[in-house]
Q: What sequence folds into this?
DNA sequence: TTAGAATATACGTGTAAAGGAATATAAAGA
DNA sequence: TCTTTATATTCCTTTACACGTATATTCTAA
């Protein structure tokens, strides 16, 4: 489980990361919001912490977990080499994500598709009038 | 092997994608440049094609593979939700990637670390004079 | 100091996927 | 047609990892 890419390959881990983007959360809060068994949450948090995606602080019996930026920046840096290539083809993405919506909606319980589409539209160049 | 994230979790596939960013390549060219057995290349290309990362055209007995943009855009869109969060912490990335260099250099045969660092520096804000 | 709450870890199991070796398919050229 | 080149696929084995269940650890509060 060396690389950041293997870490985020796991859907539950991506869900945890998306949850933590709003604010830090305890294990129990993650457990309830994502409806995963507690050992599952703890085990994924362990992996995420070892990989530097999150850090935790102690609050009584609770552990509060929050994001750390470095691995995300590393992923972004890897993606950067492809940006020149794809930036020409923005329109095709709309169709692609619409297809994803149809096929995978049930696997993405937290509306990330909608978020993706919204964000994508923001990066689209304005039509020249 | 549903999601784009699982596809790029495999290091050989990432190497193939990085190779194709310069230009389209035949299976044999990929095989030689990355020093992988031919069946390995073909199998990974199959996965990449099914996931929409690449497409191929026929050239005599050869198959020429090239990148397609959509999956990269989809990954970028997922990463976007974390950008607000990390954009404050740029300096920490330098240290992080320097550590990665020490630990993983032998696993990244194509100088992607150097490329990452270079690109990262480009996105760093200029010091105000 | 003991009970209960919150979290972490250990262990056993199933499964998916990556790799190697062999073989199949397809096209080109003699 | 037969051979050679280029690529794809099949079969088999191994390994890594995600999960469930059970148990351990850690801290609080009574």
A:
């Amino acid at each position: 489980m060396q690389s950041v890419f293997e870490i985020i390959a796991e859907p539950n881990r991506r869900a945890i990361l998306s949850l933590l983007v709003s604010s830090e959360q305890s294990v129990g809060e993650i457990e309830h919001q994502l409806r995963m068994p507690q050992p599952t949450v703890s085990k994924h948090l362990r992996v995420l912490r070892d990989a530097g995606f999150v850090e935790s602080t102690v609050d009584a019996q609770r552990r509060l977990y929050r994001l750390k930026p470095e691995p995300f920046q590393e992923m972004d840096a890897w993606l950067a080499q492809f940006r020149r290539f794809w930036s020409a083809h923005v329109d095709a993405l709309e169709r692609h994500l619409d297809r994803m919506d149809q096929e995978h909606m049930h696997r993405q319980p937290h509306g990330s598709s909608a978020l993706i589409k919204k964000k994508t539209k923001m990066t689209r160049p304005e039509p020249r009038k």
Summary: The longest helix of chain B spans residues 70-86.
